[in-house]
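INFO  loader      accepted 1 record
INFO  loader      residues=263
INFO  predictor   begin
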Amino acid sequence: MTAPAAMPAVFLGHGSPMNAIEDNRWRRGWAELATAIPRPRAVLMVSAHWETDGLHLSSGEAPGTIHDFFGFPQALFDVRYPAPGAPWLAERTAGLLLAAGYPESRLRLDPERGYDHGAWSVLLPMYPQADVPVVQLSLDRNMTPRQHLALGHALTPLRDEGVLIAGSGDIVHNLRVDFRRPGVEPWALAFNEQAKSLILAGNAETLSDYPALGPPAIASINSGEHFLPLLYALAVRREGEAVRFFNDDVFAALSMTSVVIGG
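INFO  predictor   done
INFO  writer      dumping C-alpha cells
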C-alpha cells in the first residue's frame, strides 16, 4: 500500500481582518487553496498575532474566537469561528519541539487560548464549516529569526501525519506609511520580489537574516512578527519540493503574497 503524500505547507498573507468577510480576490484565493490541496487532519497555525515569552500551544478542546482589533464594523466582531481544538496535536507538537532541544521550562500548553484574527480570518474562507481541528503555536519573542527557522524544521514530521502547517502574516508589513496615498512604496515592491527569489532558490537562511539584505528589507519588516510565520512554512520544505505563489499583490507597504510548498 502506497503511503499518503505529505501535506503541503503554506504561508498566507492575511492583510486586514476585513478580508475575512469581504468578497475580494484574496479571500477567494484562500478558498480556492483549500479545494486544491488535500483536506488536512488538522491545522497547526503560526500567526503573527500571538507573541509570548517562551513557546505556547493552544490545547483546549473548543477554543474561542478572539477579536484582537478595534475600529472595525460590528459585523467583524460578530464573527465566530468554532473549529475544534486538537489536544493530541498540541501534545505531539510539544514533543517535537522538546526533542529538538527547546527547553521544557519555556514551553506551555494553554487550554484557554482562542483563535486570533491572524488564524480565523484565513481559516474562515478556507474551511467555512469550521470542521478542521486547529492548534496555534505562538511566536517566542526572545528568539532570533534564524532560531525560528531552525525550530520550525522540527515540525516537518507533522506533514506526514496529515497536518497542514500554516503561517499567517505578511512578507511586507509596515503600517507607518500613509495608506491613503496612492501607489506602492518602491522598497516594498523590491523586498517582496527579493523574498520571492530567495524562496524559489530554497535560500531560507539568507532570508531569515533579513537585516543583512539592506534598507528595503529593514523598511518592509519594521516589526518582525508578521514576517516570522513565513519562516515556519519555509522550514518544513523538503529538497526539490515545488513552490508557488498566489495572491501576489503589494499595496502601499503591505504584501498579500502567499506561498504553497509542495502539494
